[in-house]
């Protein structure tokens, strides 16, 4: 098989990352923007030893799982890869992909994966966006990288962004001074921000307002974060908790909601401004039993940060996509908390880390996927572990 060959293929399934998968002779073939059940004419674009990639030339027979994408930039912009699939099937794909990651990477034979919790909104749900800005041949553009990751797709409207982000984008596109002053990347949060609020934004979860640094982290889905918090609280309420550690606590989202389930909450965060805001948020909501520590997780776990004689009953982890360093996990396991709640937006690194925790004495009891990122291949998962 060679590049530019034309082939007929039937798509069988969807791989992690969003490509449709079929077979031609002895080759596995990946095709972006295809759906299981599609019969396609494709052109081969890449040939490797064990697989090839192709692009759709013609849909001979359309899969019943297909729907019409809402976005005019779809198949050019690399931000979304599932808009052509009906939403119920997107939820099934994500459950299957979590299960597959924990089987392949986590080495768990029958991963305890629940059905994926749907987002109340499939579009216009994101409360934060990071745009790329580029000037090529004196032409200014703002948008997202294309499917190849190498070129900018210049956009004026994104269907998964909350509408005030699109409104802000339109204003910026018409501002010549902004175009001359800003390059690289630009983060836009939803809502209308006054001049006095340039350093911070406000997010509301379950009726509570949270002050968040403009350069800090907060859950992106404006409509499913309440349910995420509910699920974490439910797991924390099973037994009495004396001391709870909220690792990677950000601006204190979980710490504040979990404070009613624990005698003491200790939040740990490396972003100093987020720690300052976590303290403000706790004070604003009358939380008296939460302390926040600025520093690296591993260093703090190695220190004697607990009062003499105390032990940790529960650790809540919500690390970045890259997951945790193995030394962090080992130091945490040495503290022997009775339970661990591991929240992640990357099933691959989560499965890798939970494999290590399993080797150090923890059982994986459940995995709860939440579709915090509809129309994309990303998925949020809550893993619940108990000490053997």
Notes on the protein architecture:
The protein has 388 residues and is α/β, with parallel strands linked by helices. It has helices spanning 87-104, 163-173, 176-181, 225-236, 253-258, 272-284, 297-302, 326-334, 347-359, and strands at 6-10, 13-14, 20-24, 27-31, 39-47, 51-61, 128-136, 139-145, 152-154, 184-189, 200-205, 208-213, 241-247, 262-269, 290-294, 314-317, 339-344, 362-370, 380-387. A hairpin with a 3-residue loop joins strand 5 and strand 6 (51-61). Helix 1 (87-104) runs parallel beside helix 9 (347-359).
Q: Features of this protein?
A:
19 strands, alpha/beta, 24% helix, single chain, 9 helices, six-stranded mixed beta sheet, 388 residues, 31% strand, globular
Compile the SSE list and pairings.
Blueprint: E1 6-10, E2 13-14, E3 20-24, E4 27-31, E5 39-47, E6 51-61, H1 87-104, E7 128-136, E8 139-145, E9 152-154, H2 163-173, H3 176-181, E10 184-189, E11 200-205, E12 208-213, H4 225-236, E13 241-247, H5 253-258, E14 262-269, H6 272-284, E15 290-294, H7 297-302, E16 314-317, H8 326-334, E17 339-344, H9 347-359, E18 362-370, E19 380-387
Parallel strand pairs: 4-6, 13-14, 13-16, 14-15, 16-17
Antiparallel strand pairs: 1-5, 2-3, 3-4, 5-6, 7-8, 7-10, 8-9, 11-12, 17-19, 18-19
Helix pairs in contact: 1-9
Number of helical segments with 4 or more residues: 9
Query: How would the global form be characterised?
Result: globular
| Uncertain regions spanning at least 5 consecutive residues | none
Number of strands: 19
* Euclidean distance between termini CA atoms: 51 Å
Query: Helicity, in percent?
Result: 10-25%
Strand-pairing-aware structural class: alpha/beta
Radius of gyration: 23 Å
Strand content: 25-35%
Largest sheet: 7 strands, mixed
Order of adjacent strands in the largest pleated sheet: 15-14-13-16-17-19-18
Order of helices and strands: EEEEEEHEEEHHEEEHEHEHEHEHEHEE
Mean of all residue-level pLDDT scores: 93
């Amino acid at each position: 098989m060679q590049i530019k060959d034309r082939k007929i293929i039937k798509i069988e399934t969807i791989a992690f990352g969003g490509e449709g998968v079929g077979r031609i002779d002895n080759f596995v073939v990946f095709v972006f923007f295809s759906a299981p059940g599609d019969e396609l004419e494709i052109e081969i674009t890449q040939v490797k030893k064990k697989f090839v990639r192709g692009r759709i030339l013609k849909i001979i027979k359309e899969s019943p799982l297909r729907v019409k994408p809402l976005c005019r930039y779809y198949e050019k912009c690399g931000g979304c890869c599932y808009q052509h699939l009906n939403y119920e099937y997107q939820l099934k794909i994500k459950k299957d992909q979590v299960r597959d990651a924990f089987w392949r990477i986590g080495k768990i034979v029958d991963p305890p994966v629940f059905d994926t919790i749907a987002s109340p909104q499939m579009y216009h749900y994101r409360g934060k966006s990071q745009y790329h800005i580029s000037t090529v041949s004196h032409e200014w553009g703002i948008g997202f990288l294309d499917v190849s990751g190498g070129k900018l797709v210049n956009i004026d409207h994104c269907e998964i962004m909350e509408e005030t982000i699109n409104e802000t984008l339109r204003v910026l596109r018409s501002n010549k001074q902004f175009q001359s002053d800003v390059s690289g990347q630009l983060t836009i949060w939803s809502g209308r921000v006054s001049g006095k609020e340039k350093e911070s934004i406000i997010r509301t979860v379950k009726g509570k307002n949270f002050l968040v640094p403009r350069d800090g982290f907060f859950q992106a889905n404006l409509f499913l974060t309440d349910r995420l918090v509910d699920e974490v609280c439910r797991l924390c309420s099973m037994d009495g908790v004396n001391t709870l550690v909220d690792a990677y606590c950000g601006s204190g989202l979980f710490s504040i909601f979990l404070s009613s389930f624990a005698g003491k909450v200790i939040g740990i965060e490396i972003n100093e401004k987020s720690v300052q805001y976590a303290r403000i948020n706790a004070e604003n909501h009358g939380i008296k039993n939460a302390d926040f520590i600025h520093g690296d997780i591993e260093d703090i776990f190695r220190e004697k940060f607990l009062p003499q004689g105390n032990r940790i009953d529960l650790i809540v982890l919500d690390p970045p996509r890259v997951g945790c360093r193995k030394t962090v996990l080992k130091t945490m396991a040495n503290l022997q908390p009775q339970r661990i709640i591991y929240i992640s937006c990357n099933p691959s690194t989560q499965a890798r880390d939970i494999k290590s925790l399993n080797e150090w004495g923890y059982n994986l009891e459940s995995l709860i996927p939440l579709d915090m990122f509809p129309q994309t291949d990303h998925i949020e998962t809550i893993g619940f572990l108990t000490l053997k």
